[in-house]
Each structure stands twice: as C-alpha cells, then as structure tokens.
Design a protein that fits this description.
- The structure is a single chain.
- This protein is mainly beta.
- The protein folds into two domains: about 100 residues, Immunoglobulin-like (Sandwich), CATH 2.60.40; about 110 residues, Immunoglobulin-like (Sandwich), CATH 2.60.40.1110.
- Helix content is about 10%, strand content about 45%.
- The chain has one helix and 19 strands.
- Strands 12, 13, 15, 16 and 17 form a five-stranded antiparallel sheet that branches. Strands 6-3-9-10 form a four-stranded mixed sheet, with no helix packed on it.
- The radius of gyration is 29 Å and the shape is globular.
- It starts with 7 loop residues before the first strand and ends with a strand.
C-alpha cells in the first residue's frame, strides 16, 4: 500500500482543505456539546433584618433554613445575606435563648437579584405584641451626584416627625424639611437629593426644637440608605435614636 505523505511547507506539515473542514466540524460539535452541559445560573436574592421592636426578645432570623441574623435586638440593621430566589419562602423568627418559635410565615417572595428587609415591629394586632413584614429595598445606586434615603418612623411616643437634611452653614430656621409629617409606621419611598455634607435633624411635626441631630454626614453620590427612627424613652415626646443601614454603596 502506498503511503500518502502531506506536503511540507517551510518544513512544517499542513492539513489539506478537506481535512481542515473535517477538523472544524469536529471542533464545533465539541463546543456545542460543552455548551449543552453548562448548568443555568440563577441570581440569589439578598435579605437582611431590621429590628424596631420595643418588646421582642433577642432573636435569630432564618429564611428557608438560612440564618440571616443572630442575637439581634432593637436598632439592629444587619448586613445582607444571600438566599436562593423563592416565590414561597418560609421566615422563622426564634428566640436566641432556648424556646419555641416566636413568629413564622410562609409564601414570602424573594425574586432573583432583589434586596429585601425583614422588618420586625411592635403590633397590637399580634398576641405577642410584635410582628414582621418584608420591605422591598432599592438595589441600584442613586444617580451620579445624588443620594437616596428612606426613613422608617417607629418612634411611637414621639409621633409624627419632620425630617431635615441640613447642608453645612445652614440653620434649621432657614431649612425646609425633606419629609414633612412622617407618621409612625410610615414607610415612604426613597427620597433622592443632591449629595453634599448634611446634618440629619428630626423634630416633632410642626416644631423646630430637635429631638435628634446627627453629626455631619459627607455624601459623595450614589449612596442609598435606610434610616430607622425609634424613641429612646417610653415617655411623651422623648428624644429619638437613629440607626442607618447601607442599602447600596
């Protein structure tokens, strides 16, 4: 039998055109097979816990069996934890100390790529005196040169409040509230404003005597924040405490 030798060009063997076509088809088939074997990727959902309850004990919070927060109490705004997306997630709120489950609920939806907060608050409608709901959080940065804030008023004894974001060099007498008459239990949408160094001042609605004044906060743009407002004392018109959670940036 005659041996067929490939013609050498510059000392190297080259495949003929028909053989190149066969090789290309084989390579394509391998690539298609490899693509078929890649599993589909689904983005997780991000979940955190905001605890505003005055009466709940220290708690642990799990979502579909994933521990999201451990040993938290009023004022806690946890970091986000990742869970598989679900249309019927089960939320369990258990005492950190030994004991039966305090609260639970199912059929909560957590879509892929979203951010949410399990929000624990006092509730007269619940026999335990507290309950929870789920808030949808903003997951994209504020526009360039702007910041977005959302305020959750749980200052039960203070009542409705006005919220100022006062720039450096400006007094409250010359400022206009960013939010007016925010009621207890009110959960407004995020408010977007021009980024600069500001001081948060909170007063009872219609008054200018502060119940809370923050240190100066330098905002550079893109920030998204959730601000929790609670009473520091269970008396009439007490000072309030503020807790700030980073939603984005």
């Amino acid at each position: 039998m005659r041996k067929i030798r490939l013609r050498s060009i510059d000392g190297a063997q080259r495949l003929s055109t028909p053989l190149l076509a066969v090789a290309a088809v084989a390579t394509l088939a391998l690539l298609i097979t490899a693509c078929e074997q890649v599993s589909t990727y689904t983005q997780p959902a991000l979940v955190r816990v905001i605890d505003a309850s005055y009466v709940a004990p220290a708690v642990d919070v799990t979502v579909n069996g994933t521990l999201i927060a451990a040993n938290i109490g009023q004022g806690a705004i946890t970091a986000y934890g990742a869970i598989p997306a679900s249309t019927s997630a089960i939320i369990d709120i258990d005492p950190t100390a030994a004991g039966p489950s305090l609260l639970n609920g199912d059929d909560w939806g957590f879509a892929a790529g979203t951010q949410s907060s399990v929000f624990i608050t006092d509730s007269a409608a619940n026999p335990k005196g507290y309950g929870f709901t789920v808030l949808q959080d903003q997951q994209i940065a504020a526009p360039n040169g702007h910041s977005s804030f959302r305020f959750l008023n749980q200052a039960i004894n203070t009542g409705a409040v006005d919220i100022y974001m006062i720039p450096s060099g400006v007094t409250i007498a010359n400022a206009v509230p960013l939010i007016k008459d925010l009621p207890v239990g009110g959960t407004p949408s995020y408010v977007t404003f021009i980024s600069q160094t500001v001081t948060i001042v909170i007063t009872p609605t219609g008054l200018t005597t502060p119940n809370y004044t923050s240190p100066p906060i330098a905002l550079i743009g893109g920030e998204v924040r959730t601000v929790l407002i609670v009473d520091t004392q269970l008396t009439s018109n007490p000072p309030v405490a503020v807790f700030i959670g980073n939603d984005v940036n």
